[in-house]
Amino acid sequence: MKQILMEPKLIQNDEKKVDRNIKSKIVKEEKKITKEKTLSDLPGVGPATVEKLEAVGYNDLMSVAVATSGEIIEATGMTDTAVKKIIAAARASLEMGFETGEEVLKKRELVLKLSTGSKAFDALVGGGFESAAITECYGEYGSGKTQIGHILAVNCQKQYPGSTVVYIDTENTFRPERIEQLAKGAGMDFMEVLKNIKVAKAFNTDHQMLLGEKVEDLIKKQGLDVKLVIIDSLTAHFRAEYIGRGTLAERQQKINRHMRDIAKLAQIYNFCAYVTNQVMARPDMFFGDPTQAIGGHIVGHASTFRIYLRKGKKGSRVAKLVDSPNLPEGEASFYVETSGLKDI
Q: Which of 58, 147, 264, 300 has its CA 20 to 30 A from that of 41?
């Protein structure tokens, strides 16, 4: 009799265990489905629209969520209302809302710092050039902008072995011979260093902007661990193609879009973006340094850190931190030598 009375309890316990297992499986499946949402899950997005989006680089929900409605309309030909719906749906599925300052602080722990090789220069920029940000160096010719680009390309691979550097060359300034000198000075195999630098020469502004967008393909399609993107120089082609005040507004809008695209990719993929900028002399400046960066306020606002490079005494170079979100203004002096930067 005892055995017969206990059986229903055993059955109930077994049923509860089964229920728990089923529920846990359902929860796991739901989580899996949420994680694996694709473009076709967005409202009003069919196979033809997915094809159009992917053709211009919108391969996942994140790329749609951070895009503007104008960009999606241009790519798909959808109405403004429909586009706003799919962007809102993409953002909702990724939970792109507010977060606490504490959460932002935790994310800041993931920021990388690329060393310049100079202790004074590193201290000036808070320990090195930051990832997920654009650092702009401007100065006259011979001030060391390109040299710093080459040095960062080598130091990046020394700090993060196996990482990739992207070098967008607009002024024919990339020199593998200089990389060889710097790599040997750092005690590295220069051929391995060169293999991990992807160089592309930009021939006009449209080509330059396209190459900037292609960085995402290197990361997503080729699986490269891009830690540094160099654009040397940012404004050379824009300055040559857009001449006169009549083209100024169009030029500034185009530069703004280019820098915004680079900043967005740097944030998403946590790489350091280093851009060099040309300068001009202001004829209305009678006192002080008349040197001014090209690109005006657009470039100034889009850059996270701005550094002014100039020639110092006895062949030295001086870096002045002009703008930063969290660091005070200051200066650092150094020498550019065959093996890299040397503190004074």
A: 264
Pairing type for strands 279-281 and 291-293 reads antiparallel
Check: CB of residue 132 under 8 Å from CB of residue 267. Answer: yes
Give the residues across from 337 on adjacent strands: 340
Pair of tokens at residue 314: 């006895």
Which domains occur in the chain, in start order?
A: 2-93 (1.10.150.20), 105-343 (3.40.50.300)
Q: What are the b/e assignments for 303-338, b being 16+ CB within 10 Å?
A: bbbbbbbbebeeeebbbbbeebeeeeeeebebbbee
Distances (CA, A) of 194 to 134, 173, 199, 273: 23, 15, 10, 19
The pTM (predicted TM-score) of the whole model is 0.80
Cβ neighbourhood burial of 275 (10 Å; 0-12, 13-18, 19+): buried
Name 46's Cβ contacts closer than 8 Å, sequence gap at least 6.
40
